[in-house]
Task: structure prediction
Amino acid sequence: MRLVFREDRFFLVLSVFIGIFAGLSVVCFRFAIAWCRIYLLGSGATLTPLRMVLAPSLAGLFIAVLVIHVFPLARGSGVNQTKAALYIYNGYIPLRTAVGKFITAALAIGSGHSLGPEDPSLQIGASLASALGRRMRLSRDRMRLIAPVGAAAGLAAAFNAPISAVLFVIEEVIGRWTAGILGSVVLSAVSSVVVMRWFLGSESMFRIPAVQMERPSELIAYSVLGIVGGLASVAFSSGIATLRPWCKALPRWTQYFQPAIAGLLIGIIAVLGAPQVMGAGYVYIDEAMHGQFTWQMLAILAGLKIIATLLSFVSGTPGGMFAPTLFIGAMLGAAVGGAEHVLFPHLSGSPGTYALVGMGVLFAGFLRAPMTSVFMVLEVSGNYSIILPVLIANTFAYLISRGLQPTAIFDVLTRQDGLELPSMEEQREEGTLRVEDAMRPASRAVLDTVLEAHDSLDQVLQRWDAKLPEVRLVRLDPTGWSIITRQALEIMVKEGKGNLTLGSALSGRQILFLHPDNPLETALRYVDRWPLLPVVNRADFRKLEGVISQQDVLQRYQLFGEEEGTPE
Amino acid sequence: MPEQEGNAQATAGNKRDFRRYLRREAVILALLSALAVIFFVAVTALSHIYEAQQEFLGNRWFLRGAADLKQSHFESAVTEFRAALLYERDSYTYQLNLAEALVGLKRTAEAYAYFINLWDREPENGLVNLELARIAAQKGETEQALRYYHNAIYATWPGDQQVQRRDTRLELIEYLLNIDAKAHAQAELIALAANLEDDPVQQSRVGDLFLQAQDYEHALGEYRLSLKAEPHDPTALAGAGFSAFQLGRYSLAESYLQAAVSANPNDAQSAARLRTAALVMQMDPFQRQISVALRDRIVLKAFAAAGQRLESCSSAGAAKGPATIPVAQPGLTEEWAKMKPRITELGLRRDPDLVNTAMELVFSIERQTSNACGAASETDAALLLIAKLHESN
Result:
């Protein structure tokens, strides 16, 4: 017991170290991206056309060789790999993956591929944590949890937003809330952010504009943004869902050229007038928030960024989708806000407010992380007054995205990779069977069979005719329930206890009772111990709501299995 | 008994395990701490290299931007300052210069976004407040503009604070005059004048502003101060002449305007005012130290001029149609005609009160015809000014 307790505490301490190491790694990762950018694309704000075309193409070739021959697990964003480590590989992620991800993603983002550093940071954190856990020879349970702890640390440092990182990892990777996990995840996220801020400062990735909303009627404008964002999310995720398997199905030799071709096309987009689509694009999110583009240009940038990110991601170039999602959301938000301002000049929301809400909208619609999407905007903006627009817009985007594309993007990617990981969205929305779904309601016929504690055994036996069931419930005083069979009653009467009341005869034989809202799993634990269980009201334990037996439970599960198996 | 021994052995074994575990845990923590320190030191070294490079690149782009800004190449300056900000995103100087370049490109909304962020960081910065005031003024947000202008006046400025504050106040006054807030402008001007050094150019400029604010007394004062140092400055002379003219001090006005016209013969406005002032002096029968005969002659002349004005105004009204021209009251014509036989040198000498009665009628005629028929001859204008002068007296 003492050992277990100490291991718990040790795991918490280890989480702090994981956070420190992840934070330091993410700082190095950021340096690496910046250096790649300077040496591959140049140090100025405007890029030369030659570099814009050559840098992502040549880097793409090099990355493809590295991914195919040296770091095969570095492909993709890294979120699903971390989830797979938790559910399939007992927390195992090779350290080589972290090294590979670091090198290839830094090259890709630094050379202008339309990808972000957050998901790779998440995987680097998870991989470091896994390596550390293996060295510590942690138990299997701890090992499974250590990858998400590292993931939260990596994401928090990359995003400079510990709350969002913790929520995302719990919402999308772990899928459940327990105090033990939460403590470790929070500690690692906080320590990594502290380390990151030590080196890179605490300022946000973009300057946060003043948030304005003068009239509640303006929520309609944000609802429109939610609808547009939902549709854009569907277009984005459908594009990935369709093109990724197509690219993977191409002959193997083409995989050497896919990132290069993607890079070339992105370079051409940049040369043709939209260099903003290259790289993570935080600088341009900042500019969009401060009204530095027209709404038409913002809409074009959102569309082009979707195309550029599709190209980079489906070609298998390592890199994340968080930053592009935020970019598309910000551009789309500011564009919708700008267009609405043209139509309705009295609207008070600034482009920055719409851009901020837009980021949350894409997060909810594309990544399908509804809680993270809300807290992310709150954490990034540091302004609580934005909550209503965010809630409204995110809800619309989430519902539209779910309605048009039932499977979330991370689950689509997992299934395309031939893995079957638990879908957090499906789990959240999975129907739970309850006692009320299986019980026989307390109809007149059922209530007539209930015996009262004050009845004497003789009286009960006399009135127990052949039509009544063999087992009957007894309501005890002041509360509590018991059961009695006809056979047991006859034996008691023969033993000369006929004068006794049911209450005194059954005083030591109380049985458990259930409530209608208890999960059916709970009933399953008890129904084999007693042939019949009472289901009673939560406010009045003497009031019978129904009865349930083992047969009722099994029948309901059988029916549920048939419903689930029926194709729609 | 053997059972008890077994239990004791198990407990001892557990304790050993626990101690071993504790030792292992301590070693691991020590190793992890050492590793963290090594990693931290390594990243610190890397960070120094990174920061040095970022600083170098940022500075290089900033210097290029500053050079372009100086030459008003705003487009290139914006690009270069943006590049500088890639390396030092939080730099106050880079952001301020970028915002200035954006103002140069007339991209006010973008510039405003930067200025407002800079203001959040340093609300006491004079330049930021001034730029915000200008943007607010452009947007027509008077209250905000005034707030930022006042902030700027009392803010911290690099270099000569007094000069910067004075210039800011001057700009505020010009803004107030533009929005026709004359009373507010006068208050600011008085404050400005109190802190003005002996600089004739500034004094003359402040005099001009007082003129615009229609505070002629203070304007005259400032011009006089300016003329002490620069007695032949044509602008100050013209301003002083105009101020005196507006104050009804025509004799003084005449002398200043005379000097102004001598200093700058091309100053047509001053020349016209000088003529008017001279006429006022000539046509005023109530001025002191003139003989009775001269006074009577002036009255005769004024009476005749009023009659002519009445006639020309009536005929102009008739020509343009009765529906359109609000001609002077017909009673005035009758009154003038009735009085005319009495207005002779002899009549005026016999009845000194007739001077006042005649001039009252002259003033009435000039006022009403001025309202009905607009601009008049120089004599009529002079008579109107004399009317105003005696009205206020």
About this structure: Residues 292-392 of chain B form one domain. The first helix of chain B runs from residue 2 to 70. Chain B has a mean pLDDT of 84. Chain B touches chain A at residues 17-18, 21-22, 25, 28-29, 32, 35-36, 39-40, 43-44, 46-47, 50, 53-54, 57, 61, 79-80, 82-83, 86-87, 89-90, 107, 109-110, 113-114, 116-117 (CB under 8 Å).
